[in-house]
Amino acid sequence: MKNRKLGVISIMLMVMVILSACSAAIPETPIDETEETVSTKPFEGHTLVVWIGSHAVEQEPIWNKWVADFEDMTGANIELSLLGFEGYYEQLVTAYSAGAPPDVALGDLGGWVPEFAAQGWIIPLEDQINSWEGKDQIFDNLWVTVTYDDKYYGLPWDCDSRFLIFNKQMFRDVGLDPENPPETWDELLQYAQAINDPENGVYGYGVSGAMSELATLGYMMFLGGNGERLLSDDYSQATFNSPEGLEALKFYTELFTEYEVSPPGTANQGEDEYRNGMAAGKIGMAVGGNWSWPLLYLANPDLEGEVGTSLHPYNSEPYSVLGGWATMISEASNEKELAWEWMKHMTSKDAWLYWLTQSEGPMPTRKDVANESPLFEDEKWQVQLETLAYADARPPIPEYTQISYEIQLMVQSVITGQSTAEEAIERAASNVNTILGN
Amino acid sequence: MKRTGLTAYVYMLPYVIIVVCLIIFPFIWNVSLSFESDNSFLSNYQEKFSDIIFGKVFSNTLIWTFFSVFFQLIIGLNIAILLNQKIKGIALFRALILILPWAIPDIVAAIAWKWMYNDLYGVFNDILLRFNIINRPIAWLGNISLAMPSIIVANIWKGFAMSAMFYLAALQSINNEIIEAAKVDGANNFAIYRHLLLPHLQPTIISTVILTIIFTINYFPLIFSMTGGGPYHSTDTLVTWSYQLGFRFLKFNESATVSTINFLFILIFSIAYSYIFFRKEKV
Fold this sequence. Notes:
The structure holds two protein chains of two kinds. By secondary structure, chain A is an alpha/beta fold. Chain A has two domains: 47-160 and 323-388, Periplasmic binding protein-like II (D-Maltodextrin-Binding Protein, domain 2), CATH 3.40.190; 163-321 and 395-435, D-Maltodextrin-Binding Protein, domain 2 (3-Layer(aba) Sandwich). Mean pLDDT of chain A is 89; it is low at 11-36. The longest helix of chain A is centred in the N-terminal third of the chain and has 21 residues, at 2-22. In chain A, helix 8 packs across helix 9. Helix content of chain A is 43%, strand content 14%. Chain A has 17 helices and 13 strands. Chain B has helices at residues 2-35, 43-50, 52-82, 90-103, 106-117, 123-130, 147-172, 176-184, 189-218, 221-226, 238-248, 252-282. In chain B, 78% of the residues lie in helices and 0% in strands. Chain B is globular and about 75 Å long. At the A-B interface, helix 1, helix 3 and helix 16 of A face helix 1 and helix 11 of B.
């Protein structure tokens, strides 16, 4: 009998312990013991959970300063997680679908915002953004990346646009002038062939061919440079299968299949591998962005001052693809007002100007910061500013990830010799149209 | 008797709750997701079975599993026999050969293999070029016919150690006197291997092979980090495809359908394993 009682009590205790551990933490109202001190800070006792992805997480001291300033100003407690890039998307999707997301998160401008908005995971910020004094300072071409169903769902925080990066020493070694990089497709091919030396494992240009977003971005650089876009202006159907799109696909893939200026492992490589190759003096030119040179210097300190940048060579019009990150507020958040305050803080002019005194990049989304920060006097950052003007967003629709996947398969099927460019582009366009409901 | 039973249940309760929360509940949810569709009850399954990619991915899963397990068995068994000798420093050999590949984290191993296969500065191409066996680097992971064999080789290296450990444990349970007696009776090494060691190891081999099959079908990090399923689906297996459907395209129903099919596939081997294991227990 005693044993049975003991058993029942043990069960009850365990259930209580487990239930209390499983239940959501109830925020405690701070008890002011003195009762005489009246707080003037608007968010005293409130906690905000913030998740930061992207390479910006490497600047931990700056984040800590931003958090300390904000906490001091508002009285709120910021729980900041610097999660980086690898696996961040999966973590975020899991948190949203499990109903326990952070209050504020950074989302990639490559289609995450409309995708999450379509799932009902994040809230529209139309009223907040329209009444925010900083709205006019955000680069105009970024707004489309955070728009879904004609409403803003995110606030662009940092941005980038892709351009050509090259190893100046490798140019000089073959008698090319690094101050006059290639401007057209023909010149790109000439330069790449001049640098190319497969016997010694040296290649002129890196074609991104791996199954990743980088293959889509690589193709888009040529597609846009030939005056064509992936989809129609209303994003309702594929347009990349036009003669211009086909010409771009052929030229892009022939750099590998016919001219062999891209390494043999092209089908499993992207920008990141080529950047490492460039650091090792094996790849002359590749697509990159404002994150490329710090990483190149890190991989090979001798390259300091030897990394060239220019607008990517084009056929009919200058072009670049827009990237970057935006902040978003979760539908499940109980601290939406505080969340918006934090987003404004992160995107404020003062916060950004401070950031750029501590770190070379990333590129802020604010025009006034770009005008005032001395960083942008540098030649490489000038190229970044120049290309930003030509930069075009990836289609801001929830189906973008699937469309991008079809583009990756298209590029892969041509460079692995599974299909001709004509077959691959027709198949991809047909699949993209099916995805778009046509 | 009853009281003892109740106490036993109490001790089991936390474990049961954890299993229900972390395994049974997600499993039931996954299966129910796989039947959710705007069309008919089974339409997700019908769609997947008629998808050309499904056929490709399924055959990839079979090839990946068969060759990985087959070579892990052969190499694991022979390494175990070699490491079962009484020679000086055998403990060090065992640690280096058996623990090293097994203890290296999956992602680290994947990145290391990816670098070794690299066409610009990978060690394999470098050696082949130096010995003039090839005159151009080979795109091990970028070639549609070489990518799968290349990741299988990496997986064999990563997984043979676990098999070898099981075999070594079984070999050490053989009484040395029997082997000595066989030698006195004139048995050569091959006869000892064929008629003594192999029959003794048979139950361990069967159970290890089935366990390895289950692990290999479900093994995700190596493939995903080395090739991401490419080029052109040539290394996609059921698990990598299910992951892509769920986490890249947010098509959770389709992802659940593929993982349920994967589960049924594994279930066959799990039942076989349980049958052999419990039959052995009864004996």
